[in-house]
Amino acid sequence: MNKVLILLLWIALFSLGAQAKFKTLNCELYDKDVGIIRMCKIKAISRTRNLINIIFDLFQAVESGVMVQVQFFKRANGWRPFLYNFTVDACKFFKKPNNLIIRLAYEYLKPFTNLNHTCPYKAGSTIYIKNFELDVDQFRSRYPIDNGEYAVHVSLYYDNILKGTINGSIYHFNYKDQ
């Protein structure tokens, strides 16, 4: 009986680690001729875990000129810019991934998406992020962050015209830091 209690206590202590949970996700497409967002949602797995799914159907071929602006924010008496704000040419990045921050983020996202080749993307293509669950331990090993609520704002440009945005927020809490 004592061994069972010790085992349960050990499991409970070591399962209380860092947690992160998606709070919001909003996908907006400003040019309906480019494509359609079929899915943009957070799916609950349990009270402490969830994942995101984004599915986009492309109506027009994309040859080059796709710019992605990524901004990070932290909530502290309103949303404040946090660490990174950068823009990258997506087609050039897939040819030569030389931006360290983007490369790390892409390697983290790669198992969940079909964005895996350079431009062109053909009309009729489906681009997705499926069942993306944030692995906090892996994320914190690359990006050490404090407790709190964080947001990411992704703006998608094609030929220097804003075509869409993806906004999301994550609540991060580390029990070990308490």
Structure description:
This protein has 178 residues and is an alpha+beta fold. It contains four helices and eight strands, in the order αβββββααβαββ. The chain has helices at residues 2-15, 90-95, 100-109, 136-142, and strands at 18-29, 35-44, 50-58, 66-75, 79-89, 126-132, 148-158, 161-174. A five-stranded antiparallel β-sheet has the order 1-8-7-4-5. A hairpin with a 2-residue loop joins β7 and β8 (161-174).
Write the layout of secondary structure elements.
Blueprint: H1 2-15, E1 18-29, E2 35-44, E3 50-58, E4 66-75, E5 79-89, H2 90-95, H3 100-109, E6 126-132, H4 136-142, E7 148-158, E8 161-174
β-strand number: 8
SSE-based structural type: alpha+beta
Number of helices: 4
**Low-confidence runs (pLDDT<50, min 5 residues)?**
1-18
Oligomer: single chain
Q: What is the topology, as strand order, of the major beta sheet?
A: 1-8-7-4-5
Share in β-strands: over 45%
What is the overall pLDDT average? 81
Largest sheet, in brief, is: 5 strands, antiparallel
**How would you describe the shape?**
globular
In N-to-C order, the SSE pattern is: HEEEEEHHEHEE
Query: First CA to last CA: what distance?
Result: 31 Å
